[in-house]
User: Fold this.
Amino acid sequence: MPPLTHLDGVTTDLLSRAARVRLACFDVDGTLTDGRLVFDSEGRELKAFHVRDGQGLALLRQAGIAVAFVTARGGDIAERRARELGAQACVQVGDKLACVRELARQRGLDLDAVAFMGDDLADLGVLNAAGFAVAPADAHPWIASRVHWRTRARGGEGAARELCDLLLAAQGQAEIALARVLSP
Assistant:
């Protein structure tokens, strides 16, 4: 397994939680993006996603871990990015916990096998219920104090990749992912 030196605060408990995850769910704004709302002159919303986060999500799927975007904001940008990455998208969700429960139920999973990454109050219910609750470094303090682990990176700046790396390492999939890339 590659060293986890870039992952702060990794304990035996966190590795155990990460090893159980079969569904990784991500809030979008503030987690997969930097949380800013940007509009062009036509009023269309723009979002910027970090390419390394996308690579991490693709690696999770290759390792057999389902990936979902769970967001309260509408728009086709999150849906498009989810499609590009082969993730399921729940957009304009009023009750994120109900959405994640349904995603887990569809896969025959308990919430103990779900990781959720979120950054603000709309995520608190599902963070409290998930088997592995994670927040980016810049999450609101009320959230940051209630999760199992916080990344070093900020939302939209590689935070999701840190979670992906931890899940892969805890499940013995990191070396396999590397081997896939290195094999001709």
